[in-house]
Structures are given as structure tokens and as C-alpha cells.
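Worked example 3 (structure in, sequence out).
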């Protein structure tokens, strides 16, 4: 048990040193595992990634947002549903949802858009549909962000 704990502490210390890009200290912590080249390469990659991120803040925001939508779609959907007026006990009076319901004549078709959104807000069958739609949106955000970033990089390299 002590051996496992010591290995975990050494790995945590090595990760900290790599994150701080202190190659000399990190090598001391992980020499038995991967050696100096690995640590130096990791520091170079971390440095390159940091420099790229500094030069592409919009890309970082777009990809992060899209990834969050894909990873946790209902974390984004539930607040939006609540603002529109789809509550856990039904449509909230005086909101867009109740106006939409009134516009439908007060009768809501089972399986329709309104019913699916209300079901999602209540944790019912609509969760899967809404989550899938939000994940698709997130994937689209990542794709568009990547495409625009690549286009801008190409445009910048041509103009230089």
C-alpha cells in the first residue's frame, strides 16, 4: 500500500513540475518512468500550446463552449428552458412558454415541440431529444470555430 501511495505522490509531483515546465525537477521525479526527453518534449508542447492559445483566444472560447455543450448539454439547456418558461411543474405563467401554449389554443399535441421542451424541463422523455439537439449545436460550434480559425490562419500566412 505504501508503494502505491509513494508512486502516486511521485506522479503528482512530476505532473506539477511538468505543468511548471521545470524540466530539471520533473526529470528527477520521473526518470525511472520516461526520462528526460519525454519531460523536455512535454514542456515544449505545453509552451507551444500556451503561445498558440494566446494568439487565438476566440478559437479557445469557441472550442471550449462547443465542447461544454457536447459534454454537458442539459447544463446549458435547463437554464435556457427555465428563462423561456418551461418549469419543472409546467409552463410558468406570464412567460414565452405560456404565450406559446395559448397560441396553440391551450391544446398541446403529445410528442410535439412544445411537449418535448416541457418534458425536458421536467426531466422526462424530452431530455434525450433536447440533449441530442444541444450536442449537435455544440459539435457545430466546434466545427465552425475550427473552420474559421483555419481560414484566418491561412489568410494571415498568405498576407505576410
Amino acid at each position: 500500500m505504501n508503494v502505491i501511495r509513494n508512486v502516486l505522490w511521485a506522479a503528482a509531483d512530476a505532473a506539477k513540475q511538468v505543468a511548471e515546465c521545470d524540466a530539471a525537477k520533473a526529470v528527477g521525479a520521473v526518470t525511472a518512468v520516461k526520462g528526460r526527453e519525454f519531460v523536455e518534449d512535454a514542456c515544449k508542447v505545453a509552451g507551444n500550446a500556451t503561445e498558440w492559445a494566446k494568439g487565438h483566444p476566440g478559437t479557445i472560447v469557441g472550442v471550449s463552449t462547443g465542447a461544454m455543450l457536447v459534454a454537458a448539454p442539459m447544463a446549458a439547456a435547463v437554464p435556457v428552458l427555465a428563462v423561456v418558461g418551461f418549469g419543472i411543474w409546467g409552463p410558468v405563467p406570464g412567460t414565452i412558454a405560456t404565450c406559446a401554449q395559448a397560441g396553440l389554443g391551450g391544446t398541446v399535441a403529445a410528442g410535439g415541440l412544445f411537449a418535448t421542451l416541457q418534458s425536458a424541463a421536467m426531466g422526462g422523455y424530452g431530455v434525450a431529444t433536447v440533449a441530442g439537439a444541444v450536442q449537435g449545436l455544440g459539435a457545430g460550434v466546434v466545427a465552425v470555430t475550427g473552420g474559421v480559425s483555419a481560414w484566418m490562419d491561412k489568410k494571415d500566412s498568405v498576407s505576410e
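Notes: Residues 2-55 form one domain. The CA atoms of residues 85 and 97 lie 5 Å apart.
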